[in-house]
Amino acid sequence: MAFSSVCGGLTAISGNITNRKGKFGGKIMLNKKSVDDINVKGKKVLVRCDFNVPLQDGKITDENRLVAALPTIKKLIADGGKVILCSHLGKPKGEPKPELSLAPVAKRMSELLGQEVKFAADNNVVGDNAKAAVDAMAEGDVVLLENTRYRAEETKNGEAFSKELASLCDVFVNDAFGTAHRAHCSNVGVTEFVDGDCVVGYLMQKEIDFLGNAVNNPVRPFVAILGGAKVSSKISVINNLLDKVDTLIIGGGMAYTFMAAHGEEVGKSLLEEDYKQYALDMEKKAEEKGVKLLIPVDTVAADDFSNDANFKTVGRGEIPADMEGLDIGEESAKLFADAINGAKTVVWNGPMGCFEMPNFAKGTVEVAKAMAGLEGATTIIGGGDSAAAVNQLGFGDKMTHISTGGGASLEFLEGKELPGVAAADDK
Ligand code: AMP
User: Fold this and answer.
1) For the chain: N or C, fewer Cβ within 10 A?
2) How far is CA 288 from CA 22, 256, 282, 345, in A?
3) In DSSP terms, which residues pair with 324 in a beta bridge?
4) Contact of 191 with 423, CB cutoff 8 Å
C-alpha cells in the first residue's frame, strides 16, 4: 500500500541536496522501494509501462521505450511473477480507437522478450477478457492490457478504474517515467488500492537517478542547454536551473525573446512579448548568482518557414524585418561548444533551431557534437524533441542518458515533484 507516501514531497531523492557553492558530485539514490526490494514469486504483478510509442500504419516507428522497459519485465519473469503490463497510447480520450490499440506493442514485445506477451483485447481494459487472461496466468507469463486511456476515468485519476486495476494484482510496479508527471489511475490512483507493495521499476529508478544526480548533485562544471520553441513553456526550468548551473545556454526560438527584450530587431522570429521582462529578470538573476548565461550572437534567418527558403547568417540585432531566425549561426555554435567543452555535467532540453529541416539543423548538430566529444562527463538529454534530434542526427549512443520522458523530465528540471514517483512506497 502506498497511501502514506502519496503525499511524500521530494523524499524521492535522499542524500546531499546541494547548492551551487556546496558539496557536489557524490552519488545520491532514489529513496523508493524498487523491484529489487520485493518478492514476486507466484504473485500477480501489475506493471505500469510507458508504451506510448509512435505508430505509422500499425507499425512502431521508434521502439526505444519498449526496449527501455525490458530490464524490469525480465527481472519479474525470472523471479516467477505473473506479469501484467499496462500503458496508455496516444490520446483516445476515453473511447476505444482501434488505431490506438496496444495490440502491435504486444506483438513486438513478444519478439523482444522472446516469449509470448498475450494481448488481453478488451475495450473496458479491465473487463471480462482481461480478467480471464489474468486468471489463466502461470508464473513467468506476461499479459498486456488494452490502452488504459480507452477509459475516460484514467486521466482523471478516478477511483472506480483505479480499484479495478488494483483488483487484478497483488503487487504494483511503476516503470513509466514518461507519465510520472501525471496523476492518473494507472500510475497513482491504483497505488491506493493495492494491498501489497507499490514500487518503482529499473527504468524509473535509472531516470530519476540520472536526472536527480545531474541537477541536485552535479559534478562541476555543470552546463545546461535549453532550446525549443517558447520561453513560456520553460520559464520554471530556466528559473530553477539558474540556482544550480555554472553556465546556462539558451538557443532555439526562445532566444529571440531575450534579444527583443534588449530592443534588438528579431524580424518575424518567434517572439513572446509578454515574456520580455521575464527574460531580463532571468539575466539579472544569472548575474547575481554568478551564472554565465549565453544567448546566440548570430542567427540563420530565412524568408519562409520552409527548408526551401532563402536564408543567410546575420549578427545579433540584424535579422531583417521580413525574415525569421530558424537556427543559431556558426559563431553561436562555436561559442556554445566552447562553453560545453570542459563541462563535467551537461543537461540538454530543446533543439537549437528547426532541426527537422536539414538547412536549419546545423546548430543542433554542433551542440550534439560538442556533448558527444566530452570525456568523463555525464551527458543527459531530456526527452521529447531533444531526444528525437539526438537520435535522428546519429548521436544517441554517444550520450550518457537519453530520457524516455519529455514532459516528465521537464517538470523534474523545474524542480517539481513527480506524482508517479511520489506514489511509490518509500524505502
Ligand atoms: P519544444 O517542444 O519547446 O522543445 O520545441 C521544439 C520545437 O521547437 C521543434 O519542433 C523545433 O523545430 C522548434 N524550434 C526550435 N527553434 C526554432 C526557431 N528558431 N523558430 C521556430 N521553431 C523553432
Assistant:
1) C
2) 17, 22, 10, 22
3) 302
4) yes
pLDDT confidence of residue 28: 66
Q: Given the CA of residue 227, which atom of ligand 1 is nearest to it?
A: 4
Q: How far is the CA of 395 from the centre of ligand 1 (A)?
A: 19
Q: How far apart are CA 92 and CA 109, in angstroms?
A: 22
Q: Quick check: is 230 catalytic? A: yes
Query: Can you give the pLDDT at residue 389?
Result: 86
Confidence band of 399 (pLDDT split at 50, 70, 90): very high
pLDDT at position 25, please?
A: 56
Q: Of all protein residues, whose CA lies closest to atom 5 belonging to ligand 1? A: 228
Q: Is the pLDDT of residue 6 over 50?
A: no
Indicate the SS3 state at residue 244. coil
Q: What is the mean pLDDT of the chain?
A: 92
13, pLDDT greater than 80: no
Q: Compute the average pLDDT of residues 197-215.
A: 95
Query: Are the CB atoms for 326 and 270 separated by under 8 Å?
Result: no
Whether ligand 1 lies within 6 angstroms of the CB of 230 is answered as yes
Which residue has the least CA distance to atom 15 on ligand 1? 353
Q: Which residues contact 11 (CB under 8 A, 6 or more apart)?
A: 5, 31, 422, 426
Question: How many angstroms is it from 387 CA to the middle of ligand 1?
Answer: 13
